[in-house]
Amino acid sequence: MNVLLKDKTVVVTGAGAGIGLGIVRQCIMAGANVIGIERDENRLVRIEAEGARGVHGDVGDAEAFPSLLQRLWENRGPIHGLVNNAGITIEKPLEEMSLEEMELLWRVNQRSVLLSVQALAPLMSGNGGGSVVNIASNHARASGTGYEAYAGTKGAIVAMSRAMAWSYGRQGIRVNALCPGLTMTEAVADAARDPALAARFRAWHANQRVNTVDEIGQAAAFLLSDAASAFTGADLIADQGMSSRLGDI
Fold this sequence. Notes:
By secondary structure, the protein is α/β, with parallel strands linked by helices. The chain contains 8 helices and 7 strands. Belongs to the short-chain dehydrogenases/reductases (SDR) family.
């Protein structure tokens, strides 16, 4: 175990599966006390199994979510690190996307980041600062058909992170965006059982393999830690070269 986050308290949203669970695990391994927020109550046991505290919460609830963060600070704080990982994907042609789907993407992916930082940044600044990692996507850099609304929310996260870095930098708060590419979550692993799809996934990447959730977790733990003290307002792309290639993949 490394000690990059020893004695730090870190909150991770969307913590019960996939990348979120990888972030929880790697922060625990780095010595942090981790609180994982998860909307699906059935997944809380997975967070607890990693040695973290699982808390039920919905980042899409504009009133309950900020209140939850404030209660966590009061009861479990101070909070030194925040990872805004919760997010959803809706892939469909733009002309078929409903207003409700657009608004859902905005509420969960984008507004939740604004609300969490609005709630915690003043508290962090009064406690000597902290670190925020906003999980975006390589879709903020290179996207495709059917991802207009989703990519828009992820591009917004990168832009908001840059602005937040300047808003809170003098208060000792670093804010960075982490942009994963295709990652071997449960859903991707299920799809990769098809040999043709697995080969296609490999071909998209410079080194012929897909990210693991723990690799993204390690990157998030690094950005949270003092080892990343030079990083703020950055967007770290972790996609095995996927978005650096020109042309069709």
